[in-house]
Amino acid sequence: MNHDLMPANSDHSAAGVSRRRVMVGGAIAGLAGSLGFSALTKSPAQAQSRSGSIFRSRAAANDIGILNGALYYEHQAIWAYSAAAGGLSDTDVGKAVLAIALANQADHMTHRDTLSQVITDLGGSPVMAMESYDLSAYLERGDGGLDSDVNIAKLALALETDAAIAYGNEVARLQTPELITAGATIAAAEASHATTIRAAFISLGIDIPYVPAAFVSAATRDQWVLKV
Asked: Does the first or last residue of the chain, that is N or C, have fewer Cβ atoms within 10 Å of its Cβ?
């Protein structure tokens, strides 16, 4: 099943990537490049240290588990944008939501590919994408829906908000410093996705702040998400 919303000859593709995506993509690509994966390569002194080797093995196992959890949700986000796209109308609002979806989904694909590479280089096996994902908890809470352009945008906002919260929480558990830094850049990207969606609502005349709280966290989630 092909979940990619952006065809090779798409006008969106031809128009080029946004400044935000260039910045985020560069930071994430820097993860793979800067790790070099030199940050994960043993130095001569480390190679002679059995305790250092054991520590690295434990750190890698820890980080693989956390990164695979992140990869699962990147797969989910890519699928969700594709699944929701079929419900968008051909109106100006529907086209605007689709344009945002394409840009956000492209970022998630970059995250997916980089996380998969890092997990592999750490000696792990990247979790594979599923055929579909359960969004019922979001729908039951009223965190969006699949029945209109506006509710699809609200669902995307809830997913992006939760992604930002999750990355913020999980990166603190990583044991490789370079991965912590890279994970923080992904969290920032997810927060920017949420802000972009909120900006779209503002452009429709809805009176809400672009950034509703000084933090993106479980405690402020209700301020970021727009209910149906």
From this structure: N
Give a yes or no: residue 192 inside a domain: yes
What whole-number distance in Å separates Cα of residue 123 and Cα of residue 142? 40
- Give Cα separations from 110 to 71, 79, 105, 203, 207 (angstroms): 11, 14, 9, 28, 32
- As a whole number of angstroms, the distance between CA 223 and CA 213 comes to 7
Q: Residue 36 sits in which domain range?
A: 16-224
pLDDT classification of 54: cutoffs 50, 70, 90: low
Confirm whether 56 is domain-assigned. Answer: yes
Q: How many structural domains are present in the chain?
A: 1
Residues 80/134, Cβ–Cβ less than 8 Å = no
CA angle in degrees (0–180, nearest 5) for 5-9-14: 95
Handedness of CA 115, 116, 122, 125 (dihedral sign): positive
Distance CA 30, CA 26 (A): 6
Q: pLDDT digit string (tens) for 70-110?
A: 999 999 999 999 999 999 999 999 999 999 999 999 999 99
Tokens of 18: 């946004």
